[in-house]
Write a structure and sequence with these properties.
heterodimer, A: mainly beta, about 0% helix, B: mainly beta, four-stranded antiparallel sheet
Chain lengths: ~110, ~120
Amino acid sequence: DQQVKQNSPSLSVQEGRISILNCDYTNSMFDYFLWYKKYPAEGPTFLISISSIKDKNEDGRFTVFLNKSAKHLSLHIVPSQPGDSAVYFCAASDSGGSNYKLTFGKGTLLTVNP
Amino acid sequence: GAGVSQSPRYKVAKRGQDVALRCDPISGHVSLFWYQQALGQGPEFLTYFQNEAQLDKSGLPSDRFFAERPEGSVSTLKIQRTQQEDSAVYLCASSLGQGAYQPQHFGDGTRLSIL
């Protein structure tokens, strides 16, 4: 049973446009969410995170939005660049329980076309 | 280097053989994690160390999997009597403290193929 779902296996956007990657979760105990980026043959690298006490967190071109009632979060990349082409993983944790344990989605492959 | 280092990068073994995968975390990082990533899936939690103490091994698939971190630094994941379903990328991650608020830094993984 997937507790973190990324329903789009892939996404293709033009350079300079906005990329929106979506993530849904089912476990209502999750209260901290992270996005990781992964290039082929490399490990995931941390990108941005958000706590459930917020509904938005911004870092440069990257913004994460959290809708707790819908159990949905999204990562916006504006403007998208070819170097952003990678697999993006959404991850969640429960700070009240095993707060070190991350539950990952299956990932979305983003391709940014020049 | 400054990052998490894993070796070997690739390992091919015959079914039934034992394998050992090594992880060198970032110096000074207290927490160390092992994940298994099957093809087309996200990483799945295997086990967690805080210094030398293995605080959570709930994700280990069977008693054929064993992990240790005897001196609170380097860790080894051992798989005994390997099976084909053990084929995956094994990722190690470390973080400065404990809790998800400390981002986990991942190594590039060991790709294990069981023939």
